[in-house]
Inverse folding.
């Protein structure tokens, strides 16, 4: 006998932020990620800095302040190490407090484990 009932999905959201546009960061990515956790829309929120957004996150102090604020609220911030290496920003992202790692494999596992994903 098999159980055809799908396994419950985790109440977890992964926001992939790749856009280097500060308007997208402020008025979409950060606003949603922070509110999603603060208003309990999701129990766990992870923001992944991936691609060109790595440079903006490392070099724009206003963006860095917003990321610190989100981390203080409990949003997990990851950054793609390969991208950070390509843009020469590993140290500033680590200093910020982001978990700088090669994200391909853990991101794949998150998807396979049912995380909801948004990409900007």
């Amino acid at each position: 006998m098999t159980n055809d009932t799908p396994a419950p999905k985790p109440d977890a959201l992964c926001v992939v932020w790749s856009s280097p546009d500060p308007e997208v960061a402020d008025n979409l990515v950060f606003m949603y990620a922070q509110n999603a956790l603060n208003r309990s829309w999701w129990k766990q929120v992870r923001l992944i800095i991936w691609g060109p957004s790595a440079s903006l996150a490392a070099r724009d102090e206003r963006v860095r302040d917003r990321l610190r604020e989100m981390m203080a609220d409990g949003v997990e911030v990851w950054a793609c190490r390969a991208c950070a290496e390509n843009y020469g920003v590993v140290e500033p992202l680590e200093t910020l407090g982001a978990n700088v790692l090669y994200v391909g494999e853990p991101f794949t596992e998150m998807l396979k484990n049912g995380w909801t994903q948004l990409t900007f």
The helical segments are 22-38, 53-59, 61-73, 81-87, 90-96, 104-112. DSSP finds six helices and five strands in the chain. The beta strands are 12-17, 44-49, 76-80, 99-101, 116-119. The chain has one domain: 12-119.
